[in-house]
């Protein structure tokens, strides 16, 4: 073959990997949003639910879909958990109450 051919076997080189791979770190804001959304679900704190929803929305807007790891949590799950926590924390305001103003769980 000619010396400038890319298929020439004498021009082959061994595959060598770089010493360090660039790997994006875990999404700390998304993980914090998931933790705080779980805290809202457990404590039913209505006032904490709104900042968690904004934090999840920020995590969703700042995602890097081409650089995410397969095992990490996605911003979609953080956003859905935050919205669910917002609904659950405010659901007590819309339940029927008896004359004392307490929530009526049974008749």
Summarize the structure.
The chain has 107 residues and is an all-alpha fold.
Give me some keywords for this one.
single chain; 107 residues; mainly alpha; 3 helices; 46% helix; 0% strand
Folded structure, characterized:
This protein is mainly α and 107 residues long. It has helices spanning 28-43, 46-61, 75-91. Helix 1 (28-43) packs antiparallel against helix 2 (46-61) and helix 2 packs antiparallel against helix 3. The model has no long low-confidence stretch (mean pLDDT 77).
User: Order of helices and strands, N to C?
Assistant: HHH
What shape does the CA trace take? rod-shaped
- What percent of residues are in strands? under 5%
State the end-to-end distance. 92 Å
Describe the secondary structure blueprint for this structure.
Elements: H1 28-43, H2 46-61, H3 75-91
